[in-house]
Backbone:
């Protein structure tokens, strides 16, 4: 509370005029008898007026302090109310942020769990295109056609199982569909290679006599096996390629190697495509922790 000097001008005037008035009163003759002389009354009035002035000053100071305290308390109440409102607003924002963070953490763990499953499915999917398995078949088919045929069946089953698992865990959105189409082409081409090699194995199983395993007879064998899926046409085109041969064994061996050589990079191609997809998914999952949280 600010005190204005102009508001209390009369106090200064009283203080200045009081000694003059008191002196004038004491020198004025009295109409009645008075106990005590001028000195005694001067002392009395000095003490009496001093007490009144001191008491009045004390009351004035107390009043001013009271007003100051009331003003300060009112200001403090207003400040506290404003601060309380701000605190309530901040607490609401903090609570919303905490709830959103909890939801984000839940989504993060769910998506991370899904991505772990997808990684495992991707590893199995890439391993299904292992080129070494085809090389192993090409090495044993000449000595053990039946064993090679069984291995090819296992590779077909492995690709089918890996593809089913991959299809089950992958997302159903445009990006995942594009990825599935891309690596699905690899799956199709790998099955074509398996099918082509399988025809060679079937021919070796059918022609038990090594001397009967001639390119011309293989040509006729393919014609009898044609089921319209395009496999025979691919092999017919392959048979017409100029492959220099020393004997029948070498001729067929080069044909098989020509088939499986096309699958040499299938596993690496699938791995690269899946790696890029998984990398982007991991980045998107990491962003979930800060998604929709008010700053």
Residues:
């Amino acid at each position: 509370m600010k005190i204005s000097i102009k508001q209390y001008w009369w106090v200064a005037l009283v203080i200045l005029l009081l000694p003059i008035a008191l002196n004038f009163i004491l020198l004025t003759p009295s109409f009645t008898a008075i106990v005590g002389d001028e000195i005694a009354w001067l002392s009395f009035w000095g003490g009496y007026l001093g007490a009144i002035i001191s008491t009045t000053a004390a009351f004035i100071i107390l009043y001013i302090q009271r007003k100051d305290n009331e003003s300060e308390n009112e200001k403090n109440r207003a400040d506290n109310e404003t601060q309380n409102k701000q605190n309530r607003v901040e607490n609401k924002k903090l609570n919303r942020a905490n709830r959103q963070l909890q939801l984000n953490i839940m989504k993060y763990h769910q998506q991370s769990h899904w991505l772990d499953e997808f990684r495992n499915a991707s590893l199995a999917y890439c391993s299904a295109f292992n080129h070494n398995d085809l090389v192993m078949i090409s090495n044993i088919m000449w000595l053990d056609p039946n064993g090679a045929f069984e291995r090819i069946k296992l590779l077909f089953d492995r690709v089918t199982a890996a593809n089913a698992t991959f299809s089950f865990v992958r997302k159903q959105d445009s990006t995942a569909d594009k990825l599935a189409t891309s690596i699905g082409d690899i799956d199709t081409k790998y099955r074509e290679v398996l099918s082509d090699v399988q025809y060679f194995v079937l021919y070796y199983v059918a022609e038990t006599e090594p001397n009967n395993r001639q390119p011309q007879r293989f040509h006729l064998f393919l014609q009898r096996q044609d089921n319209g899926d395009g496999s025979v046409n691919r092999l017919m085109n392959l048979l017409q390629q100029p492959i220099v041969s020393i004997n029948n064994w070498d001729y067929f061996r080069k044909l098989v190697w020509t088939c499986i050589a096309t699958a040499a990079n299938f596993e690496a191609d699938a791995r690269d495509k899946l790696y890029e997809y998984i990398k982007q998914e991991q980045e998107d999952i990491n962003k979930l922790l800060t998604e929709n949280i008010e700053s």
